[in-house]
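Hi everyone, sorry if this is the wrong subforum. Our group has a chain we'd like a structural model of before ordering constructs, and none of us has done structure prediction before. Sequence below.
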Amino acid sequence: MPTIRSLSAASAIIACTLLTGCFSWYDYNSASNYGSKRDLPRQDTARAYQTAQQYAPVNHQITKLEMNQFLSDQVAAMNGVSSAIVMMGDNIAYTAITIDSTATGTRGGELRGTETNNYGLVKGLYSPYSPQSDYADPDKLITSNGAETEMHHEHLSHLFKQKIAEKIRSLQPTVADVYISANRTVVNEFNRIAQESWHGRSLEPYRPQFIDMMERTFGTAPTVPNQAEANGREQ
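Answer:
Right subforum, don't worry. Here is the predicted structure as tokens:
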């Protein structure tokens, strides 16, 4: 019967849409999707990270270094973030994160390889290059295996960094600027410094090398807006 066939066809289309995603009706930017290709996002707020560096050269000559456990925990709880350590240099929040699969669109631009692998190796748990050893350096949060890291902070998507920075600023309005990196070396160094803080020790001895690392990681010259910032859409 035509009516039955029509109803069956309609049902099939609905089922296909809901169950298999034939149509990307739900591909919009959200707390778990930072890189929608369908959504036409609107940047309703100014860039919340590396703000001063948009307009002029900067330096990272901080006078005081402290770890902020509360902000670290709050950023770590965001979708797409596996771990986070927030260091406060005066009133600037320097944030080192690792990435997980709880969100999409955490990287911008062309697909790039990660610094780490997730092969689930039994041997060489912390390094596939030493398969007979399961030793892990206690100062390193991330080795060759583990949560994902990204060498260049420019390769993290604009919206991902924007949401992290907005969260930090909303929780601590005195923050003047936010810098975000998922570089494995930066993550491990932040973890080493954090351990000193957890033991109640002063971070002053680490301040000079921290300044040097931040200037090498983020540079001091003004940044060039990428395509994602220009039109709100990741390339």
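For your construct planning: The radius of gyration is 21 Å. The chain has one domain: 31-231.
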